[in-house]
Amino acid sequence: MKILSLFVLGMFLFACSGKKAYGESHPEAPIIRFDQDLYRYLVQNENDEALEAYKLFLDEYGEKVIYIGKTDSADFYLRLKTFFSEPTLMKLYQDEQTRMADIHSINEELAEGMKILLAEFPSLKQPKIYMHVSGLNQNVIVSDDILSLSADKYLGADYPLYQDFFYEYQRQLMSPDRIVPDYLLGFMMANFPFKGNEDVLLDRMLYEGKLRYILSCLLPRREAWEYIGYTPEQYRWCMDRQSKIWRLALENQHLFQPDYFITSQYLKEAPSTPSLPSDSPGRVGIWLGYQIIHSYMKNNASVSLQALMKTTNYRELLKQSKYKP
Description:
Elements: E1 2-4, H1 34-43, H2 55-64, H3 76-83, H4 87-99, H5 104-120, E2 128-132, E3 140-142, E4 146-150, H6 162-165, H7 168-171, H8 179-191, H9 201-218, H10 224-228, H11 232-240, H12 242-251, H13 260-267, H14 284-299, H15 305-310, H16 314-321
Parallel strand pairs: 2-4
Antiparallel strand pairs: 1-3, 3-4
Helix pairs in contact: 5-8, 5-9, 9-13, 9-14, 14-16
């Protein structure tokens, strides 16, 4: 199993809608509300058999998310109840249940995105999709046939408890509108693992750019800034300085030289991106990778999403993108 902690401006609209017709019907893949059934089990003091249908999921959840072992270990259900007996955690859980009581729109958008993804990549298997809580631990769980997301990390940037544990730039990514993109990104990252030199900025940012470009195809009604996880203002900041950002990366020789430290500075969550002005957003490398991949697909219209994802010659991809801001 893999655990992942995984603005449209003027004419700059680059979603993939209109390329293919996928039909209007969505696959029957509603989110399985493990979070609701576990909450009911805890607060109503139900028998352990109430969670029998979740045995396989509980094995992964208990061992890899809340670290209490598998269901066949001694006193598993007692440890499960003990884990959630902490008052602050149960208040968080209660708030999650209230704010996530109705996820109809999330279900619809996720089903639509998954339908497109499975049509473009027919070798992928439709996962069982769950929603769980983790006590602010792991974000997305992906195994051979499971996809699950920790809903207690999406209660909104202004949620009071988050103020004590997360910086503002982290809270920005903890709003309910990030749920569907994060489900899909987590699933793609698990099924399309990075191939290249992880120390080379060009390799890493174009891989991230490919994921965001595909995300734009899966969620065509979203705005461009949402694929990056930016605010409209952050996206505009980058667009207004696009040529300067590119020039600095080239002049500082950041693109091609293997340097894990430099590469991570462009990609990690942070209040700003080092080597850029202090008012820059973090993760500018992901934004830049997205621009290059968009340019590549615009200039190579016959390339399928499968072919794009398989491409790992990143220098050649850059060359064929004709990216010149």
